[in-house]
Design brief:
Layout lengths: L1 H14 L4 H27 L14 H24 L10 H23 L2 H10 L6 H34 L2 H11 L7 H7 L1 H27 L11 H28 L6 H33 L2 H11 L4 H14 L1 H11 L2 H28 L14 H24 L12
Helix pairs in contact: 2-16, 3-4, 3-9, 3-10, 3-15, 4-6, 4-16, 6-7, 6-9, 9-10, 10-11, 10-15, 11-14, 12-13, 13-15, 14-15
Main location: membrane
Organism: Candidatus Desulfatibia vada
Family: Belongs to the NrfD family.
């Protein structure tokens, strides 16, 4: 058994010997995870105060990281649902990779907020035992639980045929593992026929989309109902969250899939290349709409007395550099012409650069959104300050490192390739 596992690992490593970038990539990710482990250990020894918790700035970087990841997961779910839920068959190519990314981003988003809570097990227990149907936070947690279940089943249905093929081609332990993952024993049963029906995948995908959008909208409403924080309060963010989730989903798929092909030095299939440029055009359109939303938010805020001072934190205050450079320039304005130029020149690298810029800009946007609204509370004692500690940065870096490491392992061992699934109609 051990020899068979060693043989399989040797085959994998031999395939990657020609890519030193792979070893560098994995080493960086492992280092990030190790540093996060150290930060987490220190928090257990010295308490969560090392993460710079404050009575004024209660929701900090771990919360903004959570918002970024769960919004990204919803966006990925939106994009992948275009294929097997809404019948746009060309988008079935990105289904497996997109759904897997949606699954791991929501999981690591939950890990991030769990570390912020300190005792997440209490939240899970009391969420089930003492439900509060009037609480947006309760609904958000419950809906995200259903979403994780549906998105997990959705990926399994998408990958099952490929898992069965791998089980048939493999030997020994590997054959057994893939056989169990695919539940091959169900093929001769009535349930096996149901699993092959495309309608089941469509129903599960629709359930994942509805639960994800509902949870996502509840997340926006959670912020929008906080009247004491003028920057959050109102109906703007529940709507904008859906828009930003959409361009996040396209940016994630473009950046990660193109980056994977380049890292593995594989040629992108022609059919998927055409879809990449189509998604790049859609991303440019969504960014343009997002820019209009931002202009509206800032303009409306300047003419609303209670929002003026929080808005000025972005326009010419301590958050102005992050806002103008990252959120506006890097995250929105510059990617639009780069994407359009890349589409016109059929330049894959340009799409990779622009989509990566969008993700960087959106990450800073989430940080600004969460932290800035708490910097100007309705109190008379002046503005509190907040700066992430090294331990907090270490932990967040480790969460992102673990996410990308999980994706890397998934790209090696699981079916993620761009191909149409084989379910019957």
């Amino acid at each position: 058994m051990i020899n068979q596992i060693k043989k399989h690992l040797d085959l994998i490593l031999n395939d990657m010997e020609r890519s030193p970038a792979f070893y560098i990539w994995v080493s960086i990710l492992l280092s990030m995870v190790a540093v996060a482990g150290y930060a987490l250990l220190m928090s257990l020894i010295y308490s969560l105060e090392i993460f710079e918790f404050s009575i004024h700035v209660i929701w900090v970087t771990m919360v903004s990281n959570y918002v970024f990841l769960v919004v990204s997961s919803t966006g990925l779910c939106i994009v992948t649902s275009l294929g097997h839920v809404f019948g746009m068959q060309r988008y079935e190519l990105v289904a497996k990779r997109g759904v897997f990314l949606a699954l791991i981003t929501i999981i690591f988003g939950m890990i991030s907020i769990g570390a912020h809570l300190g005792h997440p097990e209490r939240a899970m227990v009391f969420n089930a035992l003492t439900p509060n149907f009037y609480s947006a936070m309760w609904w958000m947690g419950t809906l995200y639980t259903f979403y994780i279940v549906f998105i997990s089943v959705e990926y399994w249905l998408l990958a099952r045929d490929e898992l069965k093929k791998r089980a048939e081609q493999a030997e020994g332990v590997e054959r057994t593992i893939f056989g169990y993952l695919a539940l091959k024993k169900l093929d001769d049963s009535r349930l096996g026929a149901v699993l092959k029906d495309h309608k089941l995948l469509q129903a599960v995908g629709a359930a994942a989309l509805v639960s994800g959008l509902s949870a996502h909208n509840t997340l926006g409403a959670l912020f929008g109902h906080i009247e004491a924080r003028p920057l959050w309060y109102g109906s703007y963010y529940p709507v904008y969250f859906l828009l930003s989730a959409s361009f996040c989903g396209f940016a994630w798929l473009l950046a990660v899939s193109i980056g994977t092909y380049k890292l593995k030095r594989e040629e992108i299939p022609e059919e998927y290349t055409s879809l990449i440029f189509e998604m790049a055009q859609v991303l440019a359109l969504l960014l343009s709409v997002g820019l209009l939303f931002t202009v509206y938010k800032m303009g409306f805020g300047l003419f609303t007395p209670i929002k003026v001072k929080p808005i000025m934190l972005f326009l010419k205050g301590p958050f102005s550099l992050a806002f103008w450079l990252f959120e506006i320039a890097i995250g929105t304005v510059l990617p639009i012409p780069i994407l359009l130029y890349a589409v016109g020149r059929r330049n894959i690298t340009g799409v990779l650069v622009a989509s990566s810029m969008v993700l960087v800009g959106v990450y800073v946007m989430r940080y600004d959104f969460v932290v800035a609204a708490q910097i100007y509370p309705v109190i008379k004692n002046g503005l509190p300050s907040y700066l992430p500690t090294f331990m907090e940065v270490f932990f967040i870096g480790g969460v992102l490192g673990a996410l990308f490491l999980t994706y890397t392992l998934g790209a090696i061992f699981l079916p993620l390739k761009e191909e149409r699934h084989g379910h019957t109609a």
